[in-house]
Amino acid sequence: MSLGTFLKSTIDGANALRTGFGITFRHYAEQQLKTKPVDTIQYPEERREQYPRTRWRHVLTRYDNGLEKCIGCSLCAGACPARCIYVQAAENTDEQRFSPGERYAAKYEINMLRCIFCGFCQDACPTGAIVLRKDFELSDYTREDFLYTKEMFLEAAPMETMIPASTIGAMNRENAAK
Amino acid sequence: MSDHRLTQTEASLNVTGADLVNIKVNGIAVKVPKGENVIEAAKRAGVDIPYFCYHPRLSKGDAANCRMCLVEVAMPRKNPDGTEVIAKMPKPQTGCTLPAAEGMEIQTETPAIARDRKGVLEFLLINHPLDCPVCDRGGECPLQNNTLFYGPETSRYIEEKRHFPKAYPLSEQVVFDRERCIHCARCTRFTEDISGDAQLGFLKRGADLEVGTYAQTSFKSKFSGNVIELCPVGALLSRTYRFKARPWDLHTQKSICSQCSNGCNIKVDYRLNSLQRINARLNEEVNEEWTCDRGKFGHEYVNSPNRLTKPLIKKDGEFVPVEWSEAYRLLAAKLKEANGNVGGIGGYRNTNEDLFVFQKFFREVLKSNHLDSRIGRYGDSITKPLFERFGYYTMGNAISELETMKTIFVLGASLADEQPILFLRVRKAWRFKGASVIHANTFDTVDTTKVSDFAAANLIYKPGTEITLLYGLLNLLLVDNTNSIEITPQMTSLMKAAGEYPLEKVAEITGLDPKEILKTAKLMATSPTAFIVGDTVTESPDYLAIMQALGDIAVATGNEKNINVPVREVNSQGALELGILPDFAPGFVSVSDPGANTHQMLTSAANGTLPMLWVLGAKLAEKYPDRELVQAALSTAFVVVSELEMTETAQYADLILPAASFAEKDGTFTNCEGRVQRIYKAFDILGDVKPDWLIFTEIASQMGTNFPYFSARDITLDLSKSVPSFTGITPKSLGDSGIRLRN
Ligand code: SF4
Ligand code: SF4
Ligand code: SF4
Ligand code: SF4
Ligand code: FES
């Protein structure tokens, strides 16, 4: 190797270092002085707003009067391409009423490991009970913990909980639904 | 997913004669039997006509009330000038009532028909609630399907629909949603045509029309479950299945009902590991497409919380669950100790495979012939009642043969309880084939479903007078010869026996009206006559003598092959065929040193000479006639009980082995007519349970003999090789409808 090439490669190397560190320094300065907007989010302290139609964790919704919308019809389970929903229905009684009409979901489980978040369940639901919302933080430690149960899906009941069951008959369930 | 169709019947069932006519369906030319209705005729051309109320097994023509089956029809007609034209009928016709005739041209897909169907469905849906998501029928609902294919997209009806209370309890098993009924009359016709209790009818008129019993009492029928399957909507629902699952949640497996010896073909619908419902499966030879309520609803035991899941050993009067290894160790020790002095009782609820290994284990490993599957009063040789004289053991006729009889004599049986499917055949023979039925018993049930309802002669005789009655009838048939039967030399000895029973004497002893006896004798002279014998006779102390008298009548009237003494439990017949008998090995091969029968085994167990008993699912404490003997025997001997649940008998056990139910194992059952039919494993076995054949195989290998069986199939194949009567019966050859032994 001649002296010329040796010098040239040394200078080139120094230049490359200078360019590289220059970028680092510039970014450091920009961040410290907040002169430019930053794209990095400090998760989990900071969270990004989700798009309006994002489909993440399911929620079983309620009517305003506190009754569950889900009627345990299993249509979501039938539509689910991953076959990960299990619904077991039972009959409402006047003493113990969960939903309008005759039938409610006694058990409602989704295997979240198998769910592909396609939203077909939401699509199939005749009452708009199951909806996919924006909670995407679904990590856990064991497989069993991914079997989400009805209690986990169900929206919190409003404060003035259930209206007296005897006032909802089969005949005015449309009104009860409002 | 379960499959549901409006009827399981195939078109070919309805061939009415050899007369064929040429018709055209949507331009497709086919030959169909003359007079066949157009729905069936169109099926032959591969054209489906939608319908609701039509059902080939219900009486035809008099329903035609759903109007779904409308078609356009044209018929050839001669003009006055002699030319022939095809003239279209001005209005659409109902396919279910229209008989096919030569030259008929049918159009099913014209715009007019499409419009008519839309109209019919719109009408049906006016008062039909929008319940599909919560309706048990949703997903397998003919109304849903037809609406999807032929119906209007939207409804123009915005007024309030009719409303009734939901889930009206029509019977113990059937709940009724009046709002959903489309008034097709399938259920009402079923109770009239098939079950014969005529319980359901229509009340009121128009939109208020409702199905019910006339006095609004509870709908009592032994076959009520069938209306659930017949109903084309979700109006009639099963109380046990209600809200349990949707059709797409279910898996279906073919099986055979385990509740009685008739062997109905069924579909087991299960979800995960639990049996949800039982539906009928078509077998023209056995149950057609019906089941009885006992079979359809009596399956809670399969998934009952009381099922035994682990072997139990009795220690200080308490049952302690143990592992199989420990149970086997104890069992092997006890069997060695008993040294061949072991009795085996029961097996009438096990598969042929279980039974074959059961007797093989007893005969080859334990060297014991103390085996008996019969727990009734009669314990003598199985050959005596029928075989020695006529060459068959239980039923001379096939179930479906009963239809061809002119007269059916039901003696001493509550037929609808004891043999539900035989009852339906007998009724079918009477209602649709013109047979006369004679009912003779010591009592008549108060139930609504019974033979005496349609019997031409109804003889309620005093208990214990069967022999007098039968010889009295023989006397009328031969000596008085009211029907001029040809007297052969063979009959003179019969005449002598019968001569001692003149009518007046018989009437007095039996307490019957002489006119009724005369009428019966008249009916019996027609041939063929089938005899069906039930519990009153088989449990009578005079059983053999009555069978002798009945045999004499059969000989006199030329019906030697038509005596039927059907067994009672699901595989009682198989247990006989496979030698769970003290004196016969499989295939009725007699053994050189017969063992003890049930009664003898219990007696020797009670007095301590038989130290060990293995009770294979037999309900001894519950059913055996001599209760005290059972208690004494079971508390003295070392008792092993193979059971599904903790029964009264099992309480006496020293060791309980939990067994698999029919839904958890493969195998075959033999029904009362000797038909071998397959059952398939539906879902996984519960807990630590094992099928019985595996238990016998494993204990045999513990005791040093290895049976070459790894699955029920191996045993079925071995059966076909080693039991002569089972030759040719393989899992494959059995197919869907089974094979009748010796046929
Ligand atoms: S989002 Fe899709 S995969 Fe997930 S439960 Fe719903 S239907 Fe099934
Ligand atoms: S979430 Fe909707 S579709 Fe699923 S069972 Fe409930 S009501 Fe039916
Ligand atoms: S009967 Fe059929 S159409 Fe009517 S609510 Fe039930 S599933 Fe729907
Ligand atoms: S209950 Fe069902 S089978 Fe009976 S008339 Fe109504 S729709 Fe027809
Ligand atoms: S099927 Fe013809 S009118 Fe109902």
Task: Give a structural overview.
The complex is a heterodimer of chains A (178) and B (743). Chain A is an alpha+beta fold and 178 residues long. Chain A has helices spanning 3-33, 75-79, 120-124, 150-153, 173-177, and strands at 58-60, 85-91, 103-111, 130-132, 147-148. A three-stranded antiparallel beta sheet of chain A has the order 2-3-5. In chain A, strands 1-4 form a two-stranded antiparallel ribbon. The radius of gyration of chain A is 28 Å and the shape is elongated. The relative contact order of chain A is 0.18. Chain B has 743 residues and is an alpha/beta fold. In chain B, the strands form eight sheets. In chain B, strands 16-15-28-27-26-17-18 form a seven-stranded mixed beta sheet, with helices on both faces. Chain A binds chain B through residues 71-75, 77-78, 87, 89-91, 101-103, 126-127, 170-171, and chain B through 133-134, 138-139, 163, 165-167, 242-246, 248-249. The complex binds iron/sulfur cluster (SF4) (4 copies) and FE2/S2 (inorganic) cluster (FES). Residues 51-54, 64-69, 94-96 of chain B line the site of FE2/S2 (inorganic) cluster.
Largest sheet of chain A, in brief, is: 3 strands, antiparallel
* Main sheet: strands, sense, barrel of chain B: 7 strands, mixed
Number of separate domains of chain A: 2
Query: How many whole angstroms does the radius of gyration of chain A measure?
Result: 28 Å
Distance between the termini of chain B: 36 Å
* Secondary structure category of chain B: alpha/beta
How many H/I helical runs of chain A?
Answer: 5
Enumerate the spans of chain B where pLDDT stays under 50 for 5 or more consecutive residues. none
What count of domains describes the coordinates of chain B? 4
Contiguous helical run count of chain B: 25
Regarding quaternary structure, what we see is heterodimer
Q: Considering DSSP H and I runs of 4 or more, what fraction of the residues of chain A is helical?
A: 25-40%
Strand tally of chain B is: 31
Main sheet strand line-up of chain B: 16-15-28-27-26-17-18
Q: Assign a percent range to the helix content of chain B.
A: 25-40%
Alpha-beta content class of chain A: alpha+beta
| Arithmetic mean of pLDDT of chain A | 87
Strand content of chain A: 5-15%
Identify the CATH class of the largest domain in chain B.
Alpha Beta
Hey, which two chains have the biggest interface?
Answer: A-B, 18 and 15 residues
Shape of chain A: elongated
